[in-house]
Design brief:
About 35% of the residues lie in helices and about 20% in strands. By secondary structure, it is of the alpha+beta class. It has a domain of about 110 residues: 3-Layer(aba) Sandwich (Glutaredoxin). The strands form 2 sheets. Strands 4-3-5-6 form a 4-stranded mixed β-sheet, with helices on one face. It has a two-stranded antiparallel ribbon with strand order 1-2. Strand 1 and strand 2 form a beta hairpin. Helix 2 packs across helix 4. The longest helix has 18 residues. It is globular, with a radius of gyration of 20 Å. The relative contact order is 0.18.
Length: about 160
């Protein structure tokens, strides 16, 4: 069987196209409970993404406040992201030890998020109901500070949610 140069070129081109398509980022991430999610799953509501670590005292002080934020505001989702490279088992143990009640992203596989890993902690991002990422807010935050920031964003941009 003889294959023409044209056929070889077409086959090479197709393999490149399919090869590049398979290298695209998976925009999903896994939560420690095994659920697969993406930022788009939170469209229509406010999302607070908090990067933390066990060795960061202000991060530890934020946890009870973020638990309250998630519990008292059904229109605001809170996600925690460990700054450290822990196994999922280590992370699950730490989440229990620290009494983190909001969802935490699994570290295996490495999560995709539409923001860069912060250079310092604590760092918090706010994602609007239209999926616009704002931040990072560096330093310790509490429920009141997050709610004030969201109200200022709503007032300055007209951003709102049907769930408010």
């Amino acid at each position: 069987m003889i294959i023409s140069k044209k056929t070889v070129l077409v086959l090479l081109w197709l393999s490149c196209v399919f090869g590049l398509a398979s290298c695209q980022k998976d925009e999903q991430f896994s939560l420690l409970n095994g659920q697969k999610r993406s930022i788009e799953d939170y469209r229509g509501q406010w999302l607070v993404i908090n990067f933390w670590a066990e060795w960061c005292p202000p991060c530890l002080k934020e946890i009870p406040q973020l638990n309250l934020l998630a519990k008292n505001n059904p229109n605001i989702a809170v996600l925690g992201v460990s700054f450290d490279k822990l196994s999922n088992a280590e992370l699950a143990g730490l989440v229990m030890k620290l009494n983190i009640e909001y969802p935490v992203l699994a570290t295996e596989p490495m999560p995709y998020l539409p923001m860069a890993r912060p250079q310092s902690l604590p760092a918090t991002y706010v994602v609007t109901p239209q999926s616009e990422v704002l931040g990072p807010l560096l330093g310790e935050v509490d429920q009141e500070k997050i709610l004030t920031i969201i109200e200022k964003i709503k007032a300055s941009s007209g951003v709102d949610s049907a769930k408010d």
